[in-house]
Amino acid sequence: MSDTRQTDDYKSSKNYDHNLEKLNDLNLREEIEVSEQDKCTPTLDYLQSLVEELYTFNKNSLENNNEKVSYNKALLNEKVKEVLKLMKTNEEAAVAENKAQYFFLLGKTWSVTQPVTEECINVLSKAVKLNPTHLDAWNSLGECLVHLKRFSEAKYCFLASLKHGKCKVILRNLSIIMREAQLLTNENVKENLNAGIEYAKEAVELDATDGESWAILGNAYLSLFFSRQEDKLLRQSINSFEKAVKDPVAAKNADLHYNRGVALKYGEIYTDALLSFEQASILDPMWTTAKETLEDLITYLTSTQTLYQRKGQIKSKRLQQMTESLNQSCLGLYNNKIKTLKGHVLLEHIPLSKLQAGFNANKVICGRVVCVVYNQEPVPYTFCLVDKELSCVVVSVYNLAQGRGPIIGDSVAIPEPYLTHIDAKYINQTFQYPSIRVNLPLTMVVNKKNVSAECVSQPRFFSKQY
To answer: What is the value of pTM for the model shown?
Structure first.
């Protein structure tokens, strides 16, 4: 199961309980199944080879889904029919060899085509009833339930399989499903997202060379970052993606490069972010989102640099008029001592020209908004700030609700600003400007007043799931 985008639409509670009851009605036959697996199974081996060929054909068709080679769904359906016919022809011999394995292979064949049918669910359910230790059958059943958007039942399948052994694919799927929007509530978000990280970590521990496991761990960290806004989580996400792209197989996955690009963009590591989005669009030319995200980021960086250089394209006389009214009162609550962990501190008001790269402790800056940078995405909210000395800096505010950012002419005070110097390159373009990053909008003072809680909104990370 790849990490692709979906949302949930639960079946009724009655149907869910019925399916859960069916899955719980298991008769453990481990010793019997072990002895069956030791048998010579020429028929099942033959059928399994057919199913593997079917999946290889489907995978290659999807990977070659570009402008030159279109995915032939009709041909896949024909191949599925051929395999199902051979399954039926060899059913008696295959059942005699291993009934559970036969139903598993039959369900795998059905599951290639979308949408997944109830017949597919039924035969895979039979497989896990006959052999509850069949991890592949549990996983296939869970994945099929995901495609039907029955996420709670899918989660049950993945968890049930862990009672009989650990498998990196199932652990990865559990990590993904713990982030499924329809399974998250206000009460369990933190718990579920943390669990998603732990399952992904276990998958990595089983095979530290598997790039897909590292990619899913990166997605798990990124999801928690959006929830908690801790820089450490963003760094862990980026580090996981870096390990993922070292795997030649995983590196062919457009989703990996796109999600890595998202993490790098939020980290304002723009050169690598641009290259990641470019790679995603190369690997999947038909995926317009990757190409559009690349183009939007280029446009955003170009506009930001231009507006910074021109100080919002406001004429000098007008700029002088806008900034001359800036005074200590514009600092709002920072005009007085504020309570910190080290006691009450009076922040020093400094001009933009005195800012140092990195964290400027016990300092506060103030200026006027001279322009707002248009961004296709609402995050970050970006504007240019000019102080009384007519120095200019770019300010990027994260976690700000749409329509709640300061506008041209507003005074803005920012305590203990974190200054970075953006220096990004892409093809023949260079983007350079000083930037202040604000992760907590509530710390800002706009027009002498604190930013209110209603202005804050945390973005969500929608990785490509399932």
So the answer is: 0.83
Q: What does residue 381 show for φ and ψ, rounded to 5 degrees? A: -85, 120
| Residue 239: Cβ-neighbour burial (10 angstroms; 0-12, 13-18, 19+) | middle
CA dist 262 → 74, 214, 238, 249 (Å): 35, 16, 10, 21
Report the alpha-carbon distance of residue 34 to residue 219 in Å, rounded: 37
- Could you tell me which of 81, 116, 120, 89 has the C-alpha nearest to residue 103? 120
73 φ/ψ angles, rounded to the nearest 5 degrees? -65, -35
Provide the token pair at 239.
């580090």
3-class DSSP state of 371: strand
With 90 as the cut, is the pLDDT of residue 226 above it? no
Phi-psi region of 395 (alpha: psi -120 to 50; beta: other; left: phi over 0): beta
Which residue from 395, 388, 448 is spatially nearest to 420, judged by alpha carbons? 395
Copy the structure tokens of residue 388. 């009384």
Q: Which of 341, 323, 342, 436 is nearest to 380 (CA)?
A: 436
Judging by beta carbons within 10 Å of its beta carbon (0-12, 13-18, 19+), is residue 368 exposed, middle or buried? Answer: buried
The H or E element spanning position 381 is: strand 381-386
Which among 413, 421, 402 has a CA at the least distance from the CA of 446? 413
Of the chain, the percentage scoring pLDDT greater than 90 comes to 70
- Please state, in angstroms and rounded to a whole number, the distance separating the CA atoms of residues 300 and 347: 33
Angle between helices 168-177 and 135-147 (to 10 degrees): 30
Going 50 to 51 to 54 to 59, the CA torsion angle's sign is negative
The C-alpha atoms of residue 254 and residue 404 are separated, in whole angstroms, by 34
Cα–chain-centroid distance for residue 286? 20
Cα Rg of the chain (Å, integer): 28
Task: Choose among 47, 167, 156, 168: nearest CA to 108.
Answer: 47
Residue 205: DSSP 8-state? H
Half-sphere exposure of 66 (CA within 13 A, CB side): 11
Q: Does position 179 have pLDDT exceeding 90, yes or no?
A: no
Residue 395 DSSP SS3: strand
Question: 284-302, pLDDT tens digit by residue?
Answer: 998 999 999 999 999 999 9
SS3 422: strand
Across the range 187-216, mean pLDDT stands at 93
